[in-house]
Design a protein that fits this description.
It contains five helices and two strands; from the N terminus they run αααββαα. By secondary structure, the chain is mostly helical. The protein has a two-stranded antiparallel ribbon. The longest helix has 37 residues.
Length: 180
């Protein structure tokens, strides 16, 4: 709680930067996993990754501009979309013997947990940051925040490039339409 008493949003920006770093790690992990497993991601997996990128954008805005209910709403909405997609993949798709990864859970199950944690995090932080609200004061970003924002932008671009190299834009859209 002492982090929140220093200055408006200072501690919140640091915590958001750390969570954004975890989002970057998740994006890098998904790219590496895609590269190691024949280089093809299913269309719903691509949507899952897009939801993670959009949740990261909400966190990035909190790091750069300070805490805002709008930024947290963006993170929550994106994480809820990712939660729905990963829940669909976890519950409705048949279990494959090769689909297990860590502690008996498939990657979609882990994604479901990650998106649930992101929703809970954004709700908690929005509650803690409620007295700062939307403020238009420009503040400098810490070195950690700047590094994490740059890392996020690189991983988001790498994710988009990996998806477009994987199947191209039109092929992904066609396969998504047939999946849904």
């Amino acid at each position: 709680m002492a982090l929140f008493l220093e200055s408006p949003g200072h501690g919140s920006r640091q915590i958001n930067a750390l969570v954004l770093l975890l989002v970057c790690i998740g994006l890098v992990f998904s790219l590496v996993w895609q590269g190691l497993s024949a280089g093809y991601a299913c269309p719903l997996c691509t949507l899952q990754r897009m939801a993670l990128v959009l949740a990261g954008v909400g966190l990035l805005l909190n790091v750069r501009l300070g805490p805002s209910p709008l930024h947290y709403a963006m993170t929550i909405t994106s994480a809820l979309a990712g939660l729905a997609i990963s829940g669909w993949l976890t519950l409705l798709l048949p279990t494959e013997s090769g689909g297990r990864f860590l502690m008996g859970l498939r990657l979609h199950s882990w994604a479901f947990l990650v998106f649930g944690v992101l929703v809970a995090f954004a709700l908690l932080m929005q509650t803690l940051d409620r007295r700062w609200g939307d403020n238009a004061l420009k503040r400098t970003t810490s070195l950690l925040g700047t590094i994490v924002m740059g890392l996020f932008l690189v991983t988001a671009l790498a994710s988009a490039l990996g998806t477009s190299m994987d199947c191209g834009v039109s092929a992904c859209l066609k396969s998504l339409a047939t999946t849904l």
